[in-house]
Design a protein that fits this description.
mainly alpha, 4 helices, elongated, about 80 residues, 2 strands
Length: about 80
């Protein structure tokens, strides 16, 4: 069982056994400027929920806090942005 876990990690994160060595295998979401502009702006947490990248604000916060949120190539580190 442990060997299977290591193989999965190698495939998903280290580029081993035909896996991806970058984020090229991850789903990407594209939005227009109109989707994110409002009078007061849109918080990244709200945008993640609106786009279906997180099922709740709490889940979106955990994603940002855990380092799993990016905008382009930039890591999102401020959940209140």
């Amino acid at each position: 069982c442990l060997a299977a876990i290591h193989d999965t990690i190698d495939t998903m994160f280290k580029g081993g056994k035909g896996g991806y060595s970058s984020t090229e295998g991850l789903n990407r979401v594209f939005v227009s400027e109109d989707d994110i502009i409002s009078e007061n702006g849109v918080k990244i947490i709200d945008m993640f929920v609106r786009l279906g990248l997180a099922s709740s604000k709490k889940e979106a916060r955990r994603l940002v806090q855990g380092g799993g949120a990016r905008l382009g190539d930039d890591k999102i580190s401020d959940e209140n942005a």
